[in-house]
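Quick sanity check, Acylase:
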Amino acid sequence: MVAAQHVLAAEAGAKLLRCGGNAVDAAVAAALTLAVVEPWMCGLGGSGFMVVWLAREQRAVALDFQGVLPRALTVADYPVDPDLPPTLMGFPAVKDWRNTRGASAATLPGAVAGLSHAAQTYGKRGFGAALDPAITLAETGIPASWYTTLLIATEAEVISIDPASSSIYMPRGRPLQIGERLFIPRLAKTLSRLRDHGAADFYHGQIGESLVADLRAGGNRITMQDLAEYQVIDRPAMQARHRGADLYTAGPQSGGQRLCDMLAHVSGAMPTPPERPTPETWLVYANALETAWRAHRIKNGTLAEVGAHTSSLSAADTEGNMVALTYTILDHFGCGVTLPGTGILMNNGVSYFDPRPGLNTTMQGGKRINSSNMCPTVGVRDGQAVFAIGASGGDLIMPAVAQIAALMLDFDMTLEEALHSPRLDASHRGSVRADPRLGQAVLDQLGAHHRLEIASNDVGPKLYAFPSGVAWENGMLSGLSDPFQPDSNARGQG
């Protein structure tokens, strides 16, 4: 079973399962396909995390393939402009938006290394097989959905800065219309080279050389040596215990520490859950999220970290393996630049770093992204993986993932019940947001203790993340995505 933010990605993962692959193969195939069908969220120019439960070995691993700043970068490259408003990450803006827009905003992308490492180390079919579905779609393109048109129109200003991106997403000066073909020149060739030559071509070979040349032309300092030195971090997953289950997540550089802190607070404040959620339950959840986020903001030395756009997917196989994967090019359309030599839409990961000195997140040449909201999580009980969940949506990610996990473990909800439940959002920003479907009694309880925002869970503006997941329930695999993500879905092997 594969659940992803685009139905074609879920189908690509299911195809690998039908061809004898395992959950890792399926997740990698789905992730690579998202680079073709949802390139404004993630892709070969991005970075992220993957958590894998290895059933036979009874262990969970976390892969960190986050972006890295070029070694030659200096803070002087990004002078603060006090006349501009802060970035979406809450950091000061710099002259000409060099840390958020254009080639100068891109970090070394780790996605190709991370996905290749996962397939080669933990998969059964290899990296090349996982690329085949993406190559097929990249060769022909896909019809744009109404959601595609909406996203392009929303980000027209960013897209318009780059001729290559404009020609792809806004031909004839307007967003792709519903049914028009979304086709990215040279991306199929790049994917085919990866299939034929492996990830080494990205970090040591022809693809890397083209990437470096295009980025250098736009003012980026990434070199071939930077690419050659890139490393995937493969380590035991961070672990939390809640209601008799072990939750494995991506580690302290992700949203995982906040998830662990949130669940620990819930266990302490609500040692024995009631039969069903009560107004007091939701207050405990809100307080737990606030506590976890406060610790995070103090550690990072920032009081604002708003926004980001990612892709999340989950996969499971009949051998008992499970995968939760989240990766991103950060903002919608990343830095806005599609590299003409490869068709890769680049991230704007430099905006993860603060141009001010002396902070945990201060930018420095060669530094790896060390603070992310991504929170892919696998739940295991009695040695068997029972669910894998994740979400996209910046600050919204951890609250959504933590609540879905808590609802499943505190109240024995199914994945469908928990994912479709109304939620709240809290991140120590001065208010708590709540879906009115929680009911007046819950809203009154929250409002008595927090400044309350009441907002519906809709397609846009998206205020409660886009979660998805898979789960073993009553001997069967289920998978589903957020009902307010129009192109998402789940697909099974059968």
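Posting the structure with no commentary besides this: Confidence is low (pLDDT under 50) at residues 303-307.
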